[in-house]
Write a structure and sequence with these properties.
It is built from four helices and six strands. By secondary structure, the chain is α+β, with helices and mostly antiparallel strands. The protein starts with a strand and ends in an 11-residue tail after the last strand.
Length: 144
């Protein structure tokens, strides 16, 4: 499995594997949603793409400090990474409807994400969403 296409909401565009540098922000977010040592093909492809396009690899500076199991309807899961300075990356992935519901996107933005997702899945590609929070106040007891 390879990363063939990726939607970048901030650019309102779908990029192919030849243009992954244009999608660096989302490739990075998606990489943080996967296991630190990837085992499935999708996660391996995300780590591989991140390694190829990222100028400075942040993975060695961050440790996985908390995992929230798959929960909710539709389900999402959350991982929390932290560096020695206490900076956190909270990475969320899962069913698009679940991630979108937890987002701060406007209704119009949510519609655009779903249109892009429809386009990707129409091409036969698996659809998943991810999101990240780089600054937060405290952690909830369980994934929402």
């Amino acid at each position: 499995m390879a990363l063939n296409k990726i939607y970048v909401h901030s650019k309102g565009n779908i990029f192919g594997k030849k243009d992954l540098k244009e999608a660096e922000e989302v490739v990075t977010l998606a990489m943080w949603t996967s296991e630190p040592i990837p085992f499935d093909l999708m996660e391996k492809s995300l780590h591989d793409a991140y390694s190829k396009i990222c100028e400075k690899d942040q993975r060695p500076q961050y440790q996985l400090v908390r995992e929230y199991p798959l929960s909710g309807k539709p389900p999402i899961m959350t991982d929390v990474f932290q560096n020695e300075s206490g900076n956190s990356i909270i990475a969320v992935k899962g069913a698009p409807e679940g991630v979108i519901r937890q987002s701060t996107l406007s209704n119009s933005e949510k519609k655009n994400v779903l249109i892009a997702l429809d386009s990707l899945t129409f091409d036969g590609l698996p659809g998943s969403c991810c999101g990240c929070c780089f600054r937060c106040k405290g952690l909830p007891a369980k994934s929402k």
